[in-house]
Write a structure and sequence with these properties.
The protein is an alpha+beta fold and 631 residues long. Helix content is 24%, strand content 29%. Helix 2 runs antiparallel to helix 3, helix 6 packs antiparallel against helix 7 and helix 6 packs parallel to helix 8.
Length: 631
């Protein structure tokens, strides 16, 4: 269904006016002059002439109705209401569409009771055949009913301006923030040119913003509506009217190369098309890109779509999010939180306060979105709300507005998010990777895998310029964390994240050992049930990393080692440790690793790496490791 902006009534009033005239010659002359202006879409002059006509003949009903409709069209809703009420006083109520226009004007000025009264009158009286028109009216009725209830249960809402260190006398908008809450990227419009600016948090204060990069910002084109990956390494954004564009607006991406941003490139087909693609939102694992498009196959005018990144690094044909999110009207400004499940977006199709409201929805384990939840009043109002993002810790929301205490045309604000509108809790692991001996930064692969569903939560490379990485981990799962580089032993860690553990981040400095005889490492993601030696399925990720090490370095030989704590019989502990080491050994042989390169041994409780007086220390002693025995 196409969006109704004026409705059939305005066409009727503007074109079908010959049956209604005025006996006052000046009124008719001014009215005829207004029709000429209307035919040229000169609304300002048309309104002036219609006002002259209504002054000359205060009972000139059709001129007054046109004044009401034209003011509604240019969104002068208070003026529109005055003329609609004047027209009704003159007997214009015989046409039900008068009530529609008046109801829409009330809705867009927050007068929900009068809006409900008039839209109900329209629905009851309308006898036309325009189903879209009637559907929009019924949608308005739902808006009114929702808004009346929402006003009775207001949310706490205290927006705070980010201050002059971020905001300027220009238009500042579309904020995006990294998962560590330390990098803010936003759009700034200076004299019509739209560019990206970046600010870093230093000692809990934002630094003065600077232009993001000359590789991305241009003087001849506008860049905007961006999404930054949680690790701050990929910037997806919208570029319009560019020579390499497929449509009016396309999606682009730039990768941070060390300390500098690389040249952006067009995502190309099938993501971009001859239609309008904009407002990207990247998932925390980097494998799903959400965006807005008016391409065919959608449900409304502008819908939210998604595309998936395959193993070859290619984006799939976009898929519409469907009626769980999209409506016959417009959905815009999607933002996917770093939890990978909570989507915030704007819509004028779901029941709201009028115009566009902000909604949230959550992706469940079956891949379905929950019914969108309106963020409530006064976060939403009869004005347009859009472009909301949420801080990584889920406590605050950021948005742009032209509130009265601003520094420029539009400023960036933040406010505390209500508890029922917060995303799922997350934490992150952040650090640098270096050579243990030379202390030089390394280009290393960093991988985080959810051990429950076997899905990769993060998979990327550090740069040799700074060795930095940042990976998001939603609370409520166990994760295998591995860092590997050519010619080095890999690094292994296990994170068991529960709500009780809190969401404190893990900050690491990882020094990788070069491959050499005598070097050993603990495999922290090899798992067995208590007193058993059958490898659990959650060990697969670590085993795959170990296999890669052996297959990529055919000259190394290793001894797989098993260790226990001191609980129980010494002989039984030694036997258990031998069997667990052998389980890893057997798996490697089944994976076509040359048996000549492998040995295994159980050490029981003889080589503790911690005391055994607490369970936490005993847990550290229960481990599987390996030692390089030959190169």
């Amino acid at each position: 269904m196409k969006k109704i902006s004026i409705a059939a009534f305005l066409v009727f009033v503007i074109l079908g006016v010959s049956a209604q005239t005025s006996s006052v010659k000046k009124a008719m002359a001014d009215f005829d002059k207004a029709q000429v202006y209307l035919n040229n879409n000169n609304y300002e002059s048309a309104i002036a002439s219609l006002k002259d006509a209504a002054t000359a003949d205060p009972n000139f009903q059709v001129a007054i109705v046109q004044l009401a409709e034209l003011n509604r069209r240019i969104k002068s809703f208070d003026e529109a209401k005055q003329y609609y009420n004047k027209a009704l006083a003159l007997g214009a109520g015989s046409d039900a569409r008068i009530y529609y226009g008046l109801a829409e004007s009330h809705l867009n000025t927050g007068d929900y009771h009068n809006a409900l009264k008039n839209i109900t009158l329209f629905i009851d009286k309308y006898t036309g055949s325009d189903k879209d028109f009637l559907a929009k009216a019924k949608k308005y009725k739902k808006d009114c009913e929702f808004s009346i209830l929402a006003l009775k249960t207001p949310q706490k809402y205290e927006p705070v301006n980010l201050g002059p260190q971020i905001n300027s006398e220009h238009r500042d908008y579309f904020p995006a923030i990294t998962a560590d809450n330390e990098t803010l990227i936003f759009s700034r419009n200076i004299a019509g040119n739209e560019d990206f600016f970046i600010s870093k948090k230093r000692n809990k204060e934002w630094s003065s913003p600077v232009s993001l990069s000359s590789n991305i910002n241009t003087s001849q084109f506008n860049e905007g509506a961006q999404s930054i990956s949680p690790d701050g390494q990929y910037l997806f954004f919208t570029g319009c009217n560019r020579p390499n564009g497929l449509g009016r607006c396309d999606l682009y991406v730039s990768h941070k190369e060390g300390n500098n941003w690389g040249q952006p490139f067009n995502l190309g087909a099938p993501v971009n098309s001859i239609y309008w693609e904009s407002q990207p939102a990247i998932s925390p694992d980097g494998n799903t890109l959400y965006f807005v498009s008016n391409r065919p196959g959608g449900i409304g005018g502008y819908d939210i779509w998604k595309t998936l990144l395959n193993e070859e690094g290619e984006w799939s044909a976009p898929v519409n999010l469907g009626p769980e999110i999209n409506t016959p009207y417009d959905e815009n400004t999607p933002f996917l939180h770093a939890d990978g499940k909570t989507l915030y977006f704007s819509s004028d199709g779901w029941p709201g306060m009028g115009n566009k409201d902000i909604f949230m929805s959550r992706l469940d384990s079956t891949g379905h979105w929950s019914n969108p939840l309106n963020m409530g009043y006064p976060i939403n109002s009869f004005s347009e709300e859009s472009g909301l993002i949420v801080s990584p810790d889920g406590t605050e929301a950021f948005f742009s507005s032209n509130l009265k205490d601003g520094y420029g045309d539009m400023d960036i604000y933040q406010f505390k998010l209500p508890d029922d509108k917060k995303p799922m809790a997350i934490t992150y692991v952040k650090g640098i990777v270096r050579d243990k001996e030379t202390r030089k930064f390394l280009e290393a692969r960093v991988q985080v895998v959810n051990l429950g569903n076997k899905k990769t939560a993060y998979n990327d490379y550090t740069s040799k310029e700074n060795g930095e990485f940042l990976a998001v981990m939603p609370i409520g799962a166990d994760y295998a964390f591995n860092v590997s580089a050519d010619g080095y032993l890999f690094y292994s860690e296990n994170y068991q994240l529960t709500a009780a553990n809190g969401n404190k981040p893990f900050l690491l400095e990882i020094d990788l050992d070069r491959l050499k005889v005598g070097t050993d490492m603990i495999l922290k993601n090899i798992f067995f049930n208590t007193n058993e030696y059958t490898l659990l399925p959650s060990s697969v990720t670590e085993l795959a990393t170990l296999k890669d090490l052996l297959k990529n370095n055919l000259n190394i030989h290793i001894e797989v080692q098993g260790h226990t704590d001191n609980i129980g019989n010494d002989l039984q502990n030694e036997k258990l440790s031998v069997n667990r080491a052998k389980a890893v050994y057997d798996h490697l042989i089944e994976s076509k690793i040359d048996p000549e390169r492998l040995t295994y041994k159980g050490y029981g409780e003889s080589k503790p790496i911690a005391g055994n007086e607490t369970e936490e220390k005993r847990k550290r002693n229960r481990r599987t490791s390996f030692l390089i025995t030959k190169i």
